[in-house]
Specification:
- By secondary structure, the protein is an alpha+beta fold.
- Helix content is 18%, strand content 44%.
- The chain is built from 1 helix and 7 strands; from the N terminus they run αβββββββ.
- The protein has one helix at 2-23; strands at residues 35-40, 45-51, 58-61, 70-78, 81-88, 92-101, 111-119.
- The longest helix has 22 residues, at 2-23.
C-alpha cells in the first residue's frame, strides 16, 4: 500500500513540476559544484537526490536536457531530500544541471550540482 501512495505522490508532483519548469525564470551562470557521472541502459530509471534547503530555497533544473536521451518522469520530497526521476530514452549523453535558487522567480544560482548521464 505504501508503494502505491509513493507512486501516486510522484505522479502528482510530475504534473505540477512540468508546469512550474515551463514558467520559471531562466537561471544565469552556475557556481562550481560537484559533478557526478551516471551510466544507464535505455528504458531504465535514473534518480538524483538533492538535499532539501530551508528559507524558500528550491532546486531547479537549470539547463535543457537532451529529451531524446533523458526525460523527467517525477519529482518528490523524500525525507530530507528532493528526488528527481528520469527515464533513459535513447543512446547518448546529456547533463542534468541543477541550481539552488531563492525561489522560482530568481535567476541567481546559489549552489549547483551536475550529473553527466550516458545512456547505452
Amino acid at each position: 500500500m505504501k508503494r502505491v501512495i509513493v507512486v501516486m505522490s510522484i505522479l502528482s508532483a510530475l504534473t505540477y513540476g512540468r508546469a512550474a519548469l515551463a514558467e520559471s525564470t531562466p537561471i544565469g551562470p552556475l557556481p562550481a559544484g560537484p559533478i557526478s557521472s551516471i551510466e544507464a541502459q535505455q528504458g531504465e530509471l535514473v534518480a538524483v537526490a538533492l538535499p532539501s534547503r530551508s528559507g524558500g530555497r528550491v532546486w531547479r533544473i537549470a539547463r535543457r536536457l537532451d529529451d531524446s536521451v533523458l526525460r523527467e518522469v517525477s519529482e518528490a520530497n523524500v525525507g530530507g531530500s528532493i528526488v528527481l526521476v528520469f527515464r533513459a530514452r535513447g543512446a547518448g549523453s546529456t547533463t542534468i544541471a541543477m541550481a539552488l535558487t531563492v525561489s522560482d522567480s530568481s535567476s541567481k544560482a546559489l549552489e549547483s550540482r551536475r550529473y553527466r548521464v550516458r545512456v547505452h
